[in-house]
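To close the chapter, one final illustration. This time we ask the reader to focus less on the individual chains and more on the assembly as a whole: which components sit near each other, and how the overall shape emerges from the parts.
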Amino acid sequence: MKFAVITFPGSNCDRDVYHVTSNVFQVATDMLWYGERKDLSCYDTVILPGGFSYGDYLRSGAIARFSPVMEDVIEYARAGGLVLGICNGFQILMEAGLLPGAMKVNDSLKFVCRQVKIRVENKETAFTGSIKPGEVLEMPIAHREGNYYLDRAGLEQLEANNQIIFRYLNQEENPNGSLANIAGICNRERNVLGLMPHPERAAEEILGSADGSKIFTSLLESLSRGES
Amino acid sequence: MAAEKVWESEGLTEAEYEMIVAGLGREPNRTELGMFGVMWSEHCSYKNSRAVLRNFPTEGERVLQGPGENAGIIDIGDGQAVSFKIESHNHPSAIEPYQGAATGVGGIIRDIFTMGARPIALLDSLRFGGLADEHVRYLFEEVVAGIAGYGNSIGVPTVAGETFFSDSYRGNPLVNAMCLGLMDQEDISTATARGIGNPVMVVGAATGRDGIQGASFASDELTEESEEDRPAVQVGDPFREKLLLEASLELIKTGALVGIQDMGAAGLISSSSEMASRGNSGIEMDIALVPKREAGMTPYEVLLSESQERMLVVPRQGKEELVKDIFKKWGLKAAVIGKVTADEKIRVFNQDELAAEVPVRLLVDDAPLYHPEGIRPEYLDELQDFSPGEFLTKGVTVRQKEKGKSDYNQELVRLLTSENLADKSSIYEQYDHMVQLNTVVLPGSDAAVLRIKGENKGLALTVDGNGRYCYLDPEGGAEIAVAEAARNLVCSGAEPLAVTDGLNFGNPLNPEVFWQFDRAVGGISRACRELGTPVTGGNVSFYNESPAGAIYPTPIIGMVGLLEDLSQATDQYFKAPGDFIILLGETGPELGGSEYLKVIHGLVKGKIPELDYAREKAVQGLCLGAVKEGLVKSAHDCAEGGLAAALFECCLGKKTLGAEVQLESDLLPEELLFSESQSRIIISLAEEDLSEFTRLAEQSSASYQIIGRVQEKTLKINNLIEIATEELKAKWKNAIPVRLRN
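The assembled structure is written out below.
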């Protein structure tokens, strides 16, 4: 099994994701450079980490999605490869057209970093297969632009196709004002997942919560069953 | 020429100008004069503080690098080291709060990776006027946003800090940022220019006109016109600094470097001359070769520019292309601008034209050294000669008080909803405090605890300072700051190791201000000697004055501690109902300078609490000993707001709990509840560990009392206070947000 983590200029959770996949879960992981084209077909999962790619000076992810490696990520996703976008990675996936919707600035207009509770809405993905449906996970968020938005027709489609994978537990728990308390979604084909919370920050008990490890465990179990 | 007083525009005195003329043997040209102006400013030369700072204890078995470099370094074992330092950015933040605070963070981060360390933590220590003032609210919100904007983007977590409010900082806020980096000892780098003929390179951002004379601007008082100096404030680009950080660390790993130095205050001129000074060498450079983002810049402007996110590096000859390749990969510029020479001169060309030629010694080492006069301020006698007796419950001690009353609930609520004691999560939640996956004890507790990946050990970090104490007694207040910092680390389960100091004072040429400075440094020195925590570097910020006068003298202590065993990391929060609560140390009638007197009676008066080192060391020793035995479930320093506030703060863990305590005391109720006696720690432990703890305590000279047990929901202290903690928590949490919505 082999994972890839992509480093964009300004990524700052790339080393964190690498630590969790390679040291905590013992999966061989390559750090890939944004500027180099790469055949990704040898990887079982490609992860776009959090951070401030290109400083987020334009809309988050708007420049990173033009990185050379993104052409390969798009091709890999279209071929059914598993792609996980965390925080800024989620934003890049939306900009790249792999996931629907867009992020507005948080309702508070401020960056916010804290633990939140999210509910797993759908376990029919490779990322959530080992989690009980409706289970509540505690994970940190850290972002200024996580206020998920989509037009009404789009939202109806998301709902109808069960593409909403994680929701903040309720309105009070929602840290950014996102539509329908959305914290994470997948594409129609369920191989591309984006979420604002950071599962890699909740993968070791010593850091306060190990709930995020359930996402990595799901991935590994699903991959070893040979599904994807 | 003297008639024009050319020196004045560079912030120099006539006598200093004469020193320059004597040293050069001729009149300096405008470019040279500008170089002296910034290099001899207080900010770069420490001309008024150097003599006093020599009192600091700076040596210890763990000290690998003391003061004099970009940052200090201490040995944490296993071939690893940490580099850390605190720095102020007060003046820029006063007139351009977002960028001022942001570039303060950027500057201190550069100081750390320059040493070869990967920055893993930021801390901030902030002081503002009262939030009732609209302009203060603007400064507060923008400063916090600026720290967040820079630290979050670059991916260094802000793991701890403190924020205090007092009208003394109304026109002159304090923004001190501390950074800590982790490294292998083999990667330690220095800011030295050595090796005749080695190239001198500028790497990172291009140079513009921003921040020219920032160092001189920082060495003057703030006035009504200071806003006109806004161009002297730099603009930060955390994205570029992130690239610069990665490129620099990659370059340091190659071993191709002789020296590397941040281009911070006074930009190219200070970085080049300081590197040459440390290497006993000279540097010759052509400013035409410096990558610029503006056309037509004069040598003066290029030398003095404080454009951010730049470094000066000296690689070995022949490694120029390697440097360029690494920086190119990260999308950054790298240009050879000159070379190291033997003649100990800074020689600056603009293409073929010689623009400046100055001996390094004269510019750096022979900068003026002053011993300003210090006079004990007159206000002290009146303030210290005060007894709060008339404001307190007359004559009725805790022991004599009738049963069944809880008269002090309102006082406790007012204290905990005051700006200084209120919840600060609305600040630290704007900071990414978790990135890098090391934060084991999060902000809000006594100290942050970080793990070191791959090792069983951890680091504890804190910043502390109490300007009000220092106003009433600079020496005692400074000693308390050190002792409290050490206590905070001990409460987290760490052995205190070393200190970085941020010294914030008014105009040193005012004898009363200089007396405060001198005494505060004396206090820090004494406490650091007593507690075995050497000073490895720091920062002096003078001229913190506004038209309303000088700020409270505010030394800030940043302290680093080591946990040999990370599983001993402890926080301040009670864990389970039924656990025993024990107070280590003794409570005396010490309300002088307290939050209680300020908040409830509007008084800043009295004798500040006494610090007895024998007692302090005994209490810290007992606490740490018990932590290491695995007996302690929570430990919290008893500080501002006294025992009552500290007990409440212990109740705020993941699940809000309560406590019921009963103390035997001959103090007045206010004294028992709110006195800020030093050397006290509240710990909690499981019932079954009590006997083991008492066995340990009997071997210690520290006094202790078992005062009660953790409860579900209510905080009850004798018959003085009885209050539902969940309700109190809601008020405490809301106190700052409510003031900001005004």
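DSSP finds 25 helices and 28 strands in chain B. The mean pLDDT of chain B is 94. With these observations in hand, you are ready for the problems at the end of the chapter.
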